[in-house]
Amino acid sequence: MNKYLDLSPEVAQAIAEGKPVVALESTIISHGMPYPQNVETALKVEATIRENGAVPATIAIIGGRLKAGLTPDGIEYLGKKGRAVTKASRRDLPVLVARGEDGATTVTTTMIIAALAGIRVFATGGIGGVHRGAETTMDISADLEELAHTPVMVICAGAKSILDLGLTLEYLETKGVPVIGYGTEELPAFYTRKSGFRVDYRIDTPEELAAAFRAKMEMGLEGGMLVTNPIPEEYSMDPERINAAIDKAIEECSARGIRGKDTTPFLLARIKDITGGDSLDANIQLVLNNARLAARTAAAM
Ligand code: PSU
Ligand code: MN
């Protein structure tokens, strides 16, 4: 095992016995949702994964150690500290680990640590992508490069329109990352089920997701797979309302000169405030929905 990696006893046992394990990220806890809903959601997501027959492995960096599997106290610690924790992407790992510091893992670093631990399935809410205006800012999330290189299946609710969805799909195509719609031909847009963009393939069962991922690995093709799972109809938001909130948040973001890694957390928090908390409710439900699918897919793998 990698000398920087610690598995929780439960995760270590599950991996040793070949039981299904699902990785979970921690930036969604520290930077993606406010306290205390972030901690409540993280614990509910873990419970949902257990109910569906898999073991949850929430991933973070604590005291410079790469952790796969946190205790409820660890989750509470990250959730309470919130944005005071370093949002850790690939470029942050060397210094955080050498200094023995804490970091909340993004999709990128969760994939890295999951792969080190031998975990193949990862559930989250949303991934980073090509930001709107990237043709001048060059703001393209490291998540896309990680999907190109690291062998983990990422189950998300599509990409929200704080991103340029068309450019995000083009980037993934160039990098050879399959974009799957779970039960849909259309890329879901996180808070809503429709985006106007098509996915590469529609897949309808966890078994077929597992088979496609296995084929990719056995052919020796580098990289992961992106599964986009639409938010359940009953929780999806009105597209006009959410898109107006997103547009307003993006305007404020550029007016205030917010850039780089602060962009996504700022936008998520502003969208929540503008929608009076409704976007957070939708966010929580779609994460739980992704956790269910991830647990079943890990079991099928
Ligand atoms: N989208 C969400 N919630 C999140 C994130 C994205 O709806 O919490 C987080 C994830 O950790 C993702 C990261 O990997 O933001 C992307 O940040 P950036 O755009 O800075 O790469
Ligand atoms: Mn960025």
Name its key features.
single chain, alpha/beta, eleven-stranded mixed beta sheet, 47% helix, binds pseudouridine-5'-monophosphate
Question: Can you characterise this structure?
Answer:
There is one protein chain. By secondary structure, this protein is of the alpha/beta class. Helix content is 47%, strand content 14%. It contains 13 helices and eleven strands. Manganese (II) ion is lined by residues 139, 141, 260, 263. The site of pseudouridine-5'-monophosphate has 17 residues, from α2, α8 and α12.
Segments where pLDDT lies below 50 for 5+ residues? none
Helix content: 40-55%
Rg over C-alpha atoms, rounded to the nearest angstrom: 18 Å
CA distance, first residue to last residue? 22 Å
What is the average of the pLDDT values? 97
- Succession of helices and strands: EHEHHEEHEHEHEHHEHEEHEHHH
Strand content: 5-15%
| Biggest sheet layout | 11 strands, mixed
Based on Cα principal axes, name the global outline.
globular
Number of helices: 13
Structural class: alpha/beta
Instruction: Identify every distinct bound molecule in the structure, by name, code or SMILES.
Output: pseudouridine-5'-monophosphate, manganese (II) ion
